[in-house]
Amino acid sequence: MRFITIAAPLAGTSIRRVRLATASLVSAAMLILFSAGAAQAHHGFDDFDTDRPHYIAGTVSQVRWGEPHSYFTVTIDRDLPADTPERDLPDGLRDAADSDPINAAPSYSGSHDQLEVTIAPPSFTGMWGLDRELEDGERIEAVGYVGRSHDDEFRPVVFWVEDGKPVNQVLNEELPATPLPVPYPEDDAPAADADQESPSASADSDDTSPMAVWATVGGVLVAVVAGGAFYLRARSRRA
Prior knowledge:
The chain is an alpha+beta fold.
């Protein structure tokens, strides 16, 4: 009888501890998933027309340097060449699949005299070729993508500072999409046959999304925690 009197509070305490541990680990798993999603959104090119790289050159102003991105304005040169001039590329973008679209990218011909440029934060840019803050008044060149919904925005895959040094801006060291043929058709690329999967769709289906990986890891973690909680609760009841 004495044993039962002592064991019951202990069992209750164990259950409460299990519940607290479970809640903490589940919260941690959700935080991991949220952080992964936020990082993917921050560093992604989803809001930019990745089928159509363009070359720009101009003068930097309004530099905002920091995390999670750095920003600056580029006033576009009036006499841009027809396409990208011959420039050195970083090691990660020298394969033909990446270098050919970059070298053949036509110059920006949009209606804006200035573009708002988004680049990776200093923690990444410092590793990829630029260990200092850009300065108002200096000149850069870049190849990248114009915004889909905001066509006054620009996201480079590579840019060059005044000394001609290339700065890689692609996380996976490859272009995010296969560009359309150059020169671009006046309209968008023709729609794929209904019975034939487009190359880009095939490529997407073969690649494992980072979010899918993180979701799987989070799901496994939650399942392990829940299983451990049920096991300890059943064990406490038997005691």
